[in-house]
Design a protein that fits this description.
The protein is an alpha+beta fold. The chain has three domains: 30 residues, no CATH class; 215 residues, no CATH class; 185 residues, no CATH class. The strands form three sheets. Strands 1, 2, 3, 4 and 5 form a five-stranded antiparallel beta sheet that branches. Strands 6-9-10-11-12 form a five-stranded antiparallel beta sheet, with helices on one face. The radius of gyration is 26 Å and the shape is globular. The termini are far apart.
């Protein structure tokens, strides 16, 4: 069908692939396998309340309602999700054991497991119910901190600091001695979003907590812990409710009054997705069009025909602040959460920019960095024009076998003056960086262990016969060169 908003032909998805306008009302999704027919069966194992079908949501042609998203805020949200995925990595194995088990039997059971883990002061159990794609390095970090606190690790930098303080060793089953947190009057409800997605709302909760200072001090020497002669702690008690959690999360005057998590099913088990929860929270706060929770369809409409085209198109999309264009050049499997929300936010690419992207037709290389496209011989040129006169600013980045060189030309039409500058970042200049750090009293001896030949690159990935750019893999590959040298 043709898009009713812009007339683009061949549109067969829920939203126009050209302008993002809604094409038809969203059909109510079929009941998922875990949802029992009304009145015919008990709720699934682990559920704390009967499953409730979510309200039907009609997609209104013409796009989102009132809320307008600033470009900076939209890119900040997307950047936050990308950062979460980067920290999580792509590990699909539970960090709490040697098995690949994890998650829960239903969406509500995932919420219950999270509350139980909080009450039991068990950070590993909390990680075990989070989306595996978002855990990875985050789980490793939490595990390392926990091991240092319980005295299991005394060799890492953190482990040595804690061991040398000799402030006490924590019990792995009681990480905060003297602290007790109890939940009661818990009521949840579930809204089906798609076959593998559900929103679990915390409709009611009462929490009470106590802190016994004497019990804490039996295990932890507070003076040694804080390296002070005058540390004083006291008994404390408190409570909070579901409403106070909502106020803390969304603000006292927000129209959102019920906390929730978005859960997803992975290999038959249900997990809480922090990325999807953040995206859905923003969507609800600004009353935007629904996300796409069904089958995203063929990958043929995403990505590019070649690695070179994928990189060129990505540079263009980022420069023009084309959110949909950026997302549709990311690997769909790894960035599934962003794909589902790519048409939720207004997409207004910036016009009036001159951009020249010439990526050299280099061969893709597969090595310890992953699948990479070398940038040697490539040139990016970006020109921004003034709205008032003939003034402009031009930035050019060129890549060779060692350096990335930036040159700029700022032309002021009023004074008819050019202000030019240039600079470069070269792998061979790491010695100069070491000298600078040494002058500041910073140990830089590890920089001598950094070895890399071949200039700069961008990580790419082929999926479904199409090529995509992977920013997470790119950042991780660059970081790995330095972290490996620093070990």
């Amino acid at each position: 069908m043709n898009c009713p908003a812009c007339g683009a032909p061949g549109q067969n998805a829920q939203f126009c692939q050209h302008c993002g306008a809604a094409l038809a009302p969203a059909a109510a999704p079929a009941a998922p396998s875990w949802a029992a027919p009304s009145g015919t069966a008990p709720p699934p194992p682990g559920a704390t309340a009967p499953l409730a079908a979510g309200p039907e949501v009609a997609v209104v042609p013409g796009g989102p309602s009132a809320g307008k998203q600033g470009t900076a805020r939209k890119f900040a949200l997307i950047g936050g999700v990308v950062a979460l995925l980067a920290v999580g990595g792509v590990a699909l194995k539970s960090v709490t054991s040697d098995s690949a088990s994890g998650g829960a039997s239903s969406p509500e059971a995932a919420m219950t497991a999270m509350l139980d883990a909080a009450s039991n002061e068990d950070p590993l159990a909390m990680l075990d119910v989070l989306d595996p794609a978002e855990v990875g390095l985050l789980g490793e970090t939490v595990t390392n901190v926990r091991n240092a606190l319980i005295g299991k690790d005394t060799t890492s930098q953190l482990g040595k600091v804690i061991h040398d303080r000799d402030a006490g060793v924590l019990d792995p089953n009681d990480l905060i001695p003297g602290f007790q947190l109890d939940f009661s009057d818990i009521k949840t409800s579930t809204e089906q979003l798609g076959d593998n997605y559900a929103k679990v709302s915390l409709d009611q909760l009462q929490a009470n907590w106590t802190f016994d200072a004497a019990t804490f001090q039996k295990t932890v020497d507070v003076q040694k812990l804080f390296d002070t002669d005058s540390a004083d702690i006291h008994d404390e008690t408190g409570s909070f409710t579901q409403t106070e959690i909502a106020n803390a999360l969304y603000g006292e005057f927000s129209n959102m009054t019920t906390p929730f998590f978005v859960t997803k099913r992975v290999d038959g088990n249900w997990y809480i997705s922090l990325a999807l929860t953040a995206l859905e929270t923003t969507r609800e706060e600004d009353d935007l069009r629904p996300a796409e929770w069904g089958d995203l369809g063929s990958k043929k409409g995403f990505g590019a025909d070649s690695p070179r085209a994928a990189v060129e198109n990505m540079v263009s999309a980022v420069t023009h602040q084309d959110i949909v264009g950026v997302i549709e050049l990311l690997p769909p499997t790894r960035y599934d959460s962003l794909y589902r929300f790519r048409h939720v936010f207004d997409n207004n690419p910036t016009n009036g920019l001159d951009l020249s992207v010439d990526v050299a037709d280099n061969k893709v290389v597969g090595d310890s960095r992953g699948t990479v496209l070398p940038l040697e011989g490539s040139t990016f040129t970006y020109t921004m024009h003034s709205d008032y006169d003939e003034s402009y600013s031009t930035f050019t980045v060129t890549f060779d076998s060692d350096c990335a060189t930036l040159t700029s030309d700022d032309y002021d039409a009023y004074y008819d003056e050019h202000n030019t500058s240039d600079g470069s970042a070269c792998w061979s200049d790491l010695g100069k960086l070491a000298d600078t750090l040494d002058e500041q009293g910073i140990d830089s001896s590890w920089l001598s262990n950094v070895h890399h030949d071949g200039g700069f690159w961008i990580n790419v990935q082929q999926e479904g016969g199409r090529w995509f750019v992977d920013p997470i893999a790119t950042v991780q590959a660059y970081a790995r060169i330095f972290t490996d040298a620093a070990k």
